Protein backbone atom coordinates (compact mmCIF):
# COMPACT_ATOMS: atom_id res chain seq x y z
CA UNK A 1 0.00 0.00 0.00
CA UNK A 2 1.36 3.41 -0.91
CA UNK A 3 2.02 5.65 2.06
CA UNK A 4 -0.19 8.69 2.58
CA UNK A 5 2.04 11.74 2.24
CA UNK A 6 1.30 15.03 3.97
CA UNK A 7 2.95 18.40 3.62
CA UNK A 8 5.30 19.57 6.35
CA UNK A 9 2.82 22.31 7.25
CA UNK A 10 0.31 19.64 8.27
CA UNK A 11 2.42 17.35 10.44
CA UNK A 12 0.21 15.31 12.74
CA UNK A 13 2.75 13.30 14.69
CA UNK A 14 2.43 10.13 12.64
CA UNK A 15 4.69 7.28 13.68
CA UNK A 16 7.24 8.11 10.95
CA UNK A 17 8.67 11.45 9.83
CA UNK A 18 10.95 11.56 6.77
CA UNK A 19 13.22 14.60 6.52
CA UNK A 20 14.84 15.07 3.11
CA UNK A 21 18.26 16.70 3.14
CA UNK A 22 20.99 17.57 0.65
CA UNK A 23 24.49 16.42 1.49
CA UNK A 24 26.12 19.46 -0.10
CA UNK A 25 23.99 22.14 1.57
CA UNK A 26 24.66 23.97 4.84
CA UNK A 27 21.41 23.00 6.61
CA UNK A 28 22.69 21.64 9.91
CA UNK A 29 20.80 24.24 11.95
CA UNK A 30 17.52 23.44 10.16
CA UNK A 31 17.97 19.72 10.79
CA UNK A 32 18.71 20.30 14.49
CA UNK A 33 15.63 22.52 14.72
CA UNK A 34 13.43 19.80 13.25
CA UNK A 35 14.66 17.28 15.79
CA UNK A 36 14.28 19.62 18.76
CA UNK A 37 10.78 20.65 17.70
CA UNK A 38 9.50 17.19 16.77
CA UNK A 39 11.33 15.34 19.59
CA UNK A 40 11.27 11.84 18.08
CA UNK A 41 12.10 8.77 20.14
CA UNK A 42 14.64 7.68 17.56
CA UNK A 43 16.58 9.42 14.78
CA UNK A 44 17.56 7.23 11.83
CA UNK A 45 20.25 8.59 9.52
CA UNK A 46 21.39 7.74 6.01
CA UNK A 47 24.88 6.64 6.97
CA UNK A 48 26.81 3.42 7.37
CA UNK A 49 29.32 2.94 10.18
CA UNK A 50 32.42 3.65 8.09
CA UNK A 51 31.07 6.94 6.72
CA UNK A 52 29.86 7.98 10.16
CA UNK A 53 33.31 7.41 11.66
CA UNK A 54 35.00 9.35 8.84
CA UNK A 55 32.64 12.30 9.28
CA UNK A 56 33.12 12.29 13.05
CA UNK A 57 36.90 12.17 12.75
CA UNK A 58 36.99 15.22 10.51
CA UNK A 59 34.54 17.06 12.76
CA UNK A 60 36.97 16.40 15.59
CA UNK A 61 39.90 17.71 13.55
CA UNK A 62 41.34 14.31 12.68
CA UNK A 63 42.09 14.32 8.95
CA UNK A 64 42.06 10.64 8.10
CA UNK A 65 42.31 9.05 4.67
CA UNK A 66 39.59 10.42 2.42
CA UNK A 67 37.33 8.36 0.25
CA UNK A 68 38.97 5.02 -0.16
CA UNK A 69 37.50 2.45 -2.48
CA UNK A 70 36.88 2.45 -6.24
CA UNK A 71 37.84 5.44 -8.41
CA UNK A 72 34.17 6.18 -9.08
CA UNK A 73 33.54 6.38 -5.34
CA UNK A 74 36.43 8.81 -4.91
CA UNK A 75 35.33 11.00 -7.82
CA UNK A 76 31.82 11.34 -6.44
CA UNK A 77 33.18 12.18 -3.01
CA UNK A 78 35.37 14.89 -4.54
CA UNK A 79 32.34 16.37 -6.31
CA UNK A 80 30.39 16.41 -3.04
CA UNK A 81 33.16 18.19 -1.17
CA UNK A 82 33.49 20.86 -3.85
CA UNK A 83 29.74 21.46 -4.03
CA UNK A 84 29.49 21.61 -0.24
CA UNK A 85 31.96 24.51 -0.26
CA UNK A 86 30.03 26.19 -3.09
CA UNK A 87 26.78 25.98 -1.09
CA UNK A 88 27.91 27.13 2.31
CA UNK A 89 31.51 26.26 3.05
CA UNK A 90 30.92 23.18 5.21
CA UNK A 91 31.77 19.53 4.73
CA UNK A 92 29.43 17.23 2.84
CA UNK A 93 27.44 15.23 5.38
CA UNK A 94 27.58 17.73 8.24
CA UNK A 95 23.77 17.67 8.44
CA UNK A 96 23.93 13.98 9.35
CA UNK A 97 26.26 14.68 12.27
CA UNK A 98 23.97 17.52 13.32
CA UNK A 99 21.06 15.08 13.35
CA UNK A 100 22.97 12.61 15.49
CA UNK A 101 24.13 15.29 17.94
CA UNK A 102 20.62 16.73 18.23
CA UNK A 103 19.25 13.23 18.87
CA UNK A 104 21.70 12.80 21.74
CA UNK A 105 20.70 16.20 23.12
CA UNK A 106 17.04 15.19 23.43
CA UNK A 107 17.81 11.65 24.57
CA UNK A 108 16.66 9.96 21.35
CA UNK A 109 18.06 6.68 20.09
CA UNK A 110 20.26 6.84 16.97
CA UNK A 111 20.32 4.24 14.22
CA UNK A 112 22.47 4.13 11.07
CA UNK A 113 20.24 2.72 8.33
CA UNK A 114 22.16 2.89 5.05
CA UNK A 115 24.02 0.11 3.26
CA UNK A 116 27.80 -0.22 3.37
CA UNK A 117 28.85 2.22 0.63
CA UNK A 118 32.20 0.62 -0.24
CA UNK A 119 30.63 -2.82 -0.68
CA UNK A 120 27.81 -1.29 -2.69
CA UNK A 121 30.23 0.34 -5.12
CA UNK A 122 32.25 -2.86 -5.49
CA UNK A 123 29.06 -4.67 -6.52
CA UNK A 124 27.97 -1.80 -8.75
CA UNK A 125 31.18 -1.94 -10.78
CA UNK A 126 30.90 -5.72 -11.13
CA UNK A 127 27.29 -5.65 -12.34
CA UNK A 128 27.46 -2.69 -14.74
CA UNK A 129 27.96 -3.33 -18.44
CA UNK A 130 31.05 -1.84 -20.04
CA UNK A 131 28.87 0.66 -21.91
CA UNK A 132 27.10 1.77 -18.73
CA UNK A 133 30.41 2.01 -16.87
CA UNK A 134 31.87 4.25 -19.56
CA UNK A 135 28.81 6.51 -19.64
CA UNK A 136 28.87 6.80 -15.86
CA UNK A 137 32.55 7.68 -15.68
CA UNK A 138 32.04 10.36 -18.31
CA UNK A 139 29.00 11.68 -16.44
CA UNK A 140 30.79 11.81 -13.10
CA UNK A 141 33.86 13.43 -14.67
CA UNK A 142 31.56 16.05 -16.17
CA UNK A 143 30.04 16.52 -12.72
CA UNK A 144 33.47 17.39 -11.35
CA UNK A 145 33.48 20.36 -13.73
CA UNK A 146 29.91 21.44 -12.95
CA UNK A 147 29.25 24.93 -11.67
CA UNK A 148 26.96 25.91 -8.83
CA UNK A 149 24.55 27.38 -11.38
CA UNK A 150 24.39 24.08 -13.29
CA UNK A 151 23.64 22.15 -10.10
CA UNK A 152 20.88 24.63 -9.20
CA UNK A 153 19.34 24.14 -12.66
CA UNK A 154 19.43 20.37 -12.20
CA UNK A 155 17.77 20.67 -8.81
CA UNK A 156 15.01 22.88 -10.14
CA UNK A 157 14.37 20.45 -13.00
CA UNK A 158 14.15 17.58 -10.52
CA UNK A 159 11.65 19.37 -8.32
CA UNK A 160 9.38 20.31 -11.21
CA UNK A 161 8.88 16.66 -12.25
CA UNK A 162 10.77 14.03 -10.30
CA UNK A 163 9.66 11.04 -12.41
CA UNK A 164 10.39 12.77 -15.71
CA UNK A 165 13.84 13.76 -14.44
CA UNK A 166 14.78 10.25 -13.34
CA UNK A 167 13.36 8.42 -16.40
CA UNK A 168 16.23 9.18 -18.83
CA UNK A 169 18.79 8.50 -16.10
CA UNK A 170 17.16 5.13 -15.44
CA UNK A 171 17.21 4.35 -19.17
CA UNK A 172 20.91 5.16 -19.56
CA UNK A 173 22.09 3.88 -16.15
CA UNK A 174 19.71 1.03 -15.17
CA UNK A 175 22.23 -0.72 -12.92
CA UNK A 176 23.25 2.51 -11.20
CA UNK A 177 19.66 3.52 -10.45
CA UNK A 178 18.79 0.02 -9.27
CA UNK A 179 21.72 -0.28 -6.86
CA UNK A 180 22.27 3.32 -5.73
CA UNK A 181 18.61 4.31 -5.47
CA UNK A 182 16.05 1.50 -5.72
CA UNK A 183 17.81 -1.11 -3.60
CA UNK A 184 18.92 1.46 -1.03
CA UNK A 185 15.33 2.72 -0.82
CA UNK A 186 14.20 -0.82 -0.08
CA UNK A 187 16.96 -1.37 2.48
CA UNK A 188 16.28 1.88 4.33
CA UNK A 189 12.49 1.44 4.15
CA UNK A 190 12.85 -2.02 5.67
CA UNK A 191 15.05 -0.65 8.44
CA UNK A 192 12.55 2.12 9.18
CA UNK A 193 9.65 -0.33 9.15
CA UNK A 194 11.48 -2.64 11.56
CA UNK A 195 12.37 0.12 14.04
CA UNK A 196 9.18 2.21 13.95
CA UNK A 197 6.86 -0.25 15.77
CA UNK A 198 9.19 -0.15 18.76
CA UNK A 199 8.82 3.63 19.12
CA UNK A 200 6.03 6.17 19.31
CA UNK A 201 7.75 8.46 16.82
CA UNK A 202 10.81 8.03 14.58
CA UNK A 203 12.50 10.56 12.31
CA UNK A 204 14.55 9.39 9.32
CA UNK A 205 17.05 11.93 7.98
CA UNK A 206 17.70 10.87 4.40
CA UNK A 207 18.80 12.34 1.09
CA UNK A 208 15.90 14.15 -0.52
CA UNK A 209 16.24 11.97 -3.61
CA UNK A 210 15.18 8.97 -1.51
CA UNK A 211 12.10 10.49 0.13
CA UNK A 212 9.48 9.66 -2.50
CA UNK A 213 10.72 6.10 -3.03
CA UNK A 214 10.95 5.28 0.67
CA UNK A 215 7.57 6.84 1.44
CA UNK A 216 5.97 4.71 -1.27
CA UNK A 217 7.46 1.54 0.23
CA UNK A 218 6.23 2.17 3.77
CA UNK A 219 2.80 0.85 4.73
CA UNK A 220 2.47 3.35 7.57
CA UNK A 221 1.20 6.89 7.22
CA UNK A 222 4.21 9.19 7.11
CA UNK A 223 4.90 12.88 7.55
CA UNK A 224 7.39 14.47 5.20
CA UNK A 225 9.69 17.51 5.31
CA UNK A 226 11.44 18.06 1.96
CA UNK A 227 14.74 19.78 1.38
CA UNK A 228 12.87 22.74 -0.12
CA UNK A 229 11.04 23.15 3.21
CA UNK A 230 14.36 23.45 5.01
CA UNK A 231 15.37 26.33 2.74
CA UNK A 232 18.97 25.58 1.69
CA UNK A 233 20.68 28.44 -0.12
CA UNK A 234 20.18 28.12 -3.86
CA UNK A 235 18.65 24.66 -3.71
CA UNK A 236 15.23 23.09 -3.77
CA UNK A 237 15.66 19.35 -3.88
CA UNK A 238 18.42 16.77 -4.14
CA UNK A 239 18.64 15.08 -7.50
CA UNK A 240 21.99 14.38 -9.13
CA UNK A 241 23.16 10.78 -8.74
CA UNK A 242 26.59 12.04 -7.78
CA UNK A 243 25.35 13.22 -4.41
CA UNK A 244 22.40 10.99 -3.54
CA UNK A 245 24.81 9.25 -1.18
CA UNK A 246 27.41 10.56 1.28
CA UNK A 247 30.75 9.22 0.13
CA UNK A 248 33.44 10.30 2.56
Topology:
Layout: E1 5-6, E2 16-21, H1 28-38, E3 42-45, H2 49-59, H3 71-86, H4 94-106, E4 109-112, H5 117-127, H6 130-144, H7 148-160, H8 162-172, H9 174-195, E5 202-207, H10 208-217, E6 222-225, H11 227-230
Helix pairs in contact: 1-4, 3-6, 7-8, 8-9, 9-10
Structure description:
By secondary structure, the chain is of the alpha/beta class. The chain has one domain (5-243). It has 11 helices and 6 strands. The chain has helices spanning 28-38, 49-59, 71-86, 94-106, 117-127, 130-144, 148-160, 162-172, 174-195, 208-217, 227-230; strands at 5-6, 16-21, 42-45, 109-112, 202-207, 222-225. Strands 1-6-2-5-3-4 form a 6-stranded parallel beta sheet. The longest helix is centred in the C-terminal third of the chain and has 22 residues, at 174-195. The chain is globular, with a radius of gyration of 17 Å. Residues 1-11 and 233-248 have low confidence and may be disordered.
Amino acid sequence: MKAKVKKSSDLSLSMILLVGVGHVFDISDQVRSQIHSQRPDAVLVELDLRRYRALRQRANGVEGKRSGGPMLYRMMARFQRRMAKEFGGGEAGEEMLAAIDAAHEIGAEVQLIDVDAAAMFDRLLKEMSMKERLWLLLSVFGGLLSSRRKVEEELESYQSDEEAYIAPIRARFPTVVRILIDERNEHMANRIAAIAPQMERVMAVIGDGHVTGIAALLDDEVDIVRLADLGPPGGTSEARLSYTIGFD
